[in-house]
Design a protein that fits this description.
Blueprint: H1 10-14, E1 18-23, H2 27-39, E2 41-47, H3 54-68, E3 74-76, H4 90-93, H5 115-125, E4 130-133, H6 138-146, E5 156-160, H7 174-178, H8 180-187, E6 193-196, H9 198-201, H10 208-215, H11 220-238, H12 253-260, E7 265-274, E8 285-288, E9 300-306, H13 308-321
Parallel strand pairs: 1-2, 1-4, 2-3, 4-5, 5-6, 6-9
Antiparallel strand pairs: 7-8, 7-9
């Protein structure tokens, strides 16, 4: 069995959501880890291939755990999508997944190499955990297929992915495009589902002023994250039309903040389906925004707007909390 911490009644005793973060660090995943560690009861981290190969996303998660000095288990998961070949994003995150900073080598060992088993065991051992995937949805989909009973035990799934437009293709956001078959399983699982798609995450940019807020903080964590933000900004700005953005979209923390600071985000209920076959639209999140009575029943809360300044203040506070 996977090594799981005793998380029974964790959220009930603290009033904070219990979160299992499934991620592919990734610059914005790193910020999601900090945010979850500060503002939620983070019961575990699982890794998946996405922004970089699995070996590297796992290494990066261990780096972040050590930088935060948190006692949270880290388990590696799926090294490839269900059907498609794995395709990373070095043009955004660099070959390492966290290019741009002098990362300290991790000193604490990986807790396990079966992230799916860890997800299943954790959800069975403690009711009411939120699954928060911020990378391709491979691990979550496999867990739901192997153990469908966990769908009734979790509080829900809050994910980063999708939108009414794409960033990897015209119609597809990277996380959904990377494993649309897995995304289709997750969007059809039948329980509470929150989607932080590009429509909202592009409202949440690491502008120079916001990066300066992080740079003004003391300690190694703030220095590392400042360097990461600056690299992230350079790749984003180089790939966009001049003046079209002020900084990189900090996508992944919004899937956490939707649970820890729900008052900062607006949402609308819609039915969302995943296109898995289209030549031009594979990986598209098809959001039914019609006002026709025959539209399908909602299966997803789609985040539509964020109070970006206040949300970034919550991230700065989280970084400051771990400063040393």
């Amino acid at each position: 069995m996977a090594d799981t911490r005793d998380t029974t009644n964790a959220s009930a005793t603290t009033g904070r959501p219990a979160i299992l973060l499934d991620c592919d660090p990734g610059h914005d995943d790193a910020i999601a880890i900090v945010t979850a560690a500060r503002h939620a009861d983070l019961v575990g981290i699982t890794t998946v291939a996405g922004n970089a190969p699995l070996e590297r996303t796992t290494y990066n998660a261990l780096v972040m755990r050590d930088l935060l000095a948190i006692d949270v288990p880290v388990h590696s998961g799926s090294a490839r999508p269900l059907v498609a070949e794995p395709r990373a994003a070095p043009f955004i995150h660099g070959e390492s997944g966290l290019d741009g900073a002098d990362l300290p080598a991790p000193t604490t060992p990986l807790d396990g190499t079966d992230g799916v088993e860890f997800i299943i065991d954790t959800c069975r051992n403690s009711e009411g955990i939120w699954l928060v995937p911020t990378g391709p949805l491979t691990n979550i989909a496999i867990a739901l297929r192997f153990a469908p009973d966990i769908a009734d035990r979790i509080a829900g799934i809050s994910l980063m992915g999708g939108g009414t437009f794409g960033n990897r293709t015209v119609t597809a956001e990277f996380n959904i495009w990377a494993d649309p078959e897995a995304a289709s399983i997750v969007f059809g699982y039948g329980g509470p589902l929150v989607m932080a798609g590009l429509d909202v995450t592009h409202q949440f940019q690491a502008t120079p002023t916001r990066i300066a807020q992080v740079a003004a903080l003391p300690g190694q964590l703030a220095r590392v994250l400042t360097d990461l933000f600056n690299f992230f900004a350079s790749t984003y700005l180089s790939r966009h039309d001049p003046g079209s953005i002020q900084g990189p979209a900090v996508h992944d923390p919004l899937a956490v903040l939707a649970l820890t600071h729900p008052e900062l985000l607006d949402r609308e209920a819609h039915h969302v389906a995943i296109e898995t076959m289209g030549t031009l639209t594979r990986g598209m999140t098809v959001i039914d925004q019609r006002h026709l009575v025959e539209r399908r029943e909602s299966n997803c809360d789609v985040l539509t707007k964020v109070d970006a300044d206040t949300a970034f203040d919550a991230i700065v506070e989280a970084i400051a909390h771990f400063a040393k």
